[in-house]
Write a structure and sequence with these properties.
hydrolase activity; single chain; 35% helix; 2 helices; mainly alpha; Metal_Hydrolase; globular; Amidohydro-rel
């Protein structure tokens, strides 16, 4: 597993490199170096299709944690 700890990274470029099925939104909030409002980061997913956003923001976590889709 790899991580990209900087929320400034371009999500569309990341998708092109590794695929939307390997992207997962995460946060270490309220860590002082993190994004003050992690939900604001969701707007950075606008360059992805609806299916890719659903994977990255919901379904990928469900898959790795064994929750039903």
């Amino acid at each position: 597993m790899s991580v990209a700890p900087f929320y400034e990274d371009d999500i569309a470029i990341l998708r092109d490199l590794i695929g939307a099925d390997r992207i997962l939104l995460g946060s270490d909030w309220p860590h002082p170096e993190g994004l003050a409002a992690p939900r604001d980061w969701v707007g950075d997913f606008a360059g992805l299709t609806a299916d890719e956003r659903r994977l990255s923001l919901r379904d990928n976590l469900r898959k790795i944690s064994g929750l039903p889709l």
